[in-house]
Design a protein that fits this description.
Elements: H1 11-17, E1 19-25, E2 32-33, E3 40-41, H2 43-55, E4 58-64, H3 69-74, E5 81-84, H4 88-93, E6 102-110, E7 128-132, H5 136-144, E8 149-153, H6 156-164, E9 170-174, H7 175-185, E10 189-191, E11 198-204, H8 212-227, H9 229-240
Parallel strand pairs: 1-4, 7-8, 7-9
Antiparallel strand pairs: 2-3, 5-11, 6-9, 6-10, 6-11
Length: 255
């Protein structure tokens, strides 16, 4: 059937295919692929489950990286990619709903004895900062810290491994991701350097002349956010990782 290859330009397209294809880049707590079972979990996966359930279709996880996700959406391999920041460059290639999915702040993983309090404290030629290529963190810090040395990695996990082995001095990712990583790493500490950058994240979609699917996604994530369900999904997930959510900044801008 021709509808089987359609991009999700309308809700009917997804229902006709019977599958909602959600892009996932291995980055806890948004997406986590268990190395033993190869099953996916995480905040993005849980939101995808709710969306697929609402549409009456199956959920299919399409593994990708942050750097390759936009190309995957353009190639009609992915219908939605949660936790994709709507940068100006990405907006030229793919579409986003008007409403934010949620908000998060950029954090820094530093050694226990670090006295750094501001981003400017890292702006020195002898500071090696690990970032994940293709992320908003990479873009923002490259501009803000012109004197620092940047090491770019394909995934969040690779950047953390570089910190653990001493190849970088600092790793910057969004704060919830760092908290999840450090819970496993058991070394270093996570700080929110000033100035705090609270950034809205979104859902990447394929550009289409028919805006109906984008409008539907916009309404769906707005209801999730306003009802507190997005925050509840996040808190439930990090609790399952043994992390106390009361010590982690949430996903609501006002908080």
């Amino acid at each position: 059937l021709p509808t089987l290859s359609l991009a999700a330009s309308s809700v009917e397209d997804v229902k006709a295919r019977g599958v909602l294809r959600v892009g996932a880049a291995n980055a806890d707590p948004w997406y986590y692929k268990d190395p033993m079972s190869e099953k996916w979990s995480g905040v993005g996966v849980e939101i995808g489950k709710l969306m697929a359930e609402d549409l009456g279709v199956k959920l299919e996880i399409v593994e990708t990286t942050w750097g390759n996700s936009v190309a995957g959406i353009q190639a009609n391999q992915i219908d939605v990619m949660f936790v994709l920041d709507p940068t100006e460059t990405r907006k030229q290639a793919i579409d986003f709903p008007d409403a934010p999915l949620f908000y998060y702040a950029m954090g820094a993983l530093v050694h226990e004895d670090s006295t750094a309090k501001a981003w400017s404290d890292f702006d020195t030629p002898d500071t090696r900062i690990g970032v994940t290529i293709g992320t908003n963190v990479d873009t923002v810090l490259t501009e803000k810290l012109p004197n620092a040395q940047f090491e770019r990695f394909a995934s969040n996990n690779e950047a953390i491994a570089a910190f653990a082995s001493g190849r970088v001095d600092v790793v910057s990712q969004f704060h919830p991701a760092l908290i999840a990583q450090v819970a496993r790493l058991r070394m270093g500490k996570v700080i929110l350097p000033t100035e705090v950058f609270a950034i809205p994240t979104s859902v990447g979609l394929m550009k289409s002349g028919d805006p109906s699917f984008r409008i539907w996604v916009n309404d769906f994530i707005t209801k999730l956010y306003n009802s507190g369900k997005t925050e509840e999904i996040f808190e439930t997930y990090i609790k399952s990782k043994g992390i106390d959510p009361s010590g982690v900044p949430g996903l609501v801008k006002e908080n």
